[in-house]
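Now for a concrete sample entry.
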Amino acid sequence: MSETQTKIKNKTNLFHKKVYIKVPYKFLLSHIIAFSWMIFSIYLSLPWVNDLGMIVTKPVAILIIAGIGYIPGYINAFIVTSLLIDKQPRFLDTSPNNEVTIIIACKNEERNITNTLRYIANQDYDGTINVIVVDNGSTDNTFYSAKAAGEELSLNLQVLYEEKPEKYNALNSALDYITTEYTVTLDADTLLHKSAIRYIVSRIKSAPKEVCAVAGTVLVRNSRENFIAKLQEWDYFLGIASIKRMQGLYQGTLVAQGAYSLYKTEALR
């Protein structure tokens, strides 16, 4: 790298440090902008309020317009502002090699489990990936399909059987077999991007020490097949890519979804 490039990089890093806004101020700023947007919306809607008020009375008109305009507008303005001012910390380690364990709790997933394991085998992660598949009372050949796929793909794979129903029993039964610092939960029909494990481990290693979990981004693959799938695509996008990121910004993430999340193993125990 030339001396000029080094100076530019240092100035850029300095700029990022200078414009850093603390979380409470981000929260306050987002509310101020959202409130300003709502006041502007109220001003623009005054003719509408008057016209509708002649039909249903003015108080009812205000309630109707507030429900379909003011309140949703405030919420959306708050979310958009929060996402725009959110700056995720840069990865401190872009190629981590920490050993991780992936738990897959499944029931009657004979058709999906092999493909899911294939995507795990194709990860570009530098560290060792251990996989524990927990068959939670399947009535098909999930157990044997998982074992066969593990051998075929040369994975560090264990297949367990948990007869107690419910996913939490299956996941908890795998904890005794985990010796790694990080644990990833994965659904049997979740297909990982080839860099998914590398990115999610990089994120938790770059986060403050008190962070004990990272929720991965989950999107719908078959989002163009039918109308329900299209609705689900937007549900996932808004619920995970937008809302969950905003919750993370304000240090208030409510749920790390089981479909794909990483945890510090000690926190789980």
Residues 176 and 269 are 9 Å apart (CA to CA). The domain at 100-268 is CATH 3.90.550.10 (Spore Coat Polysaccharide Biosynthesis Protein SpsA; Chain A).
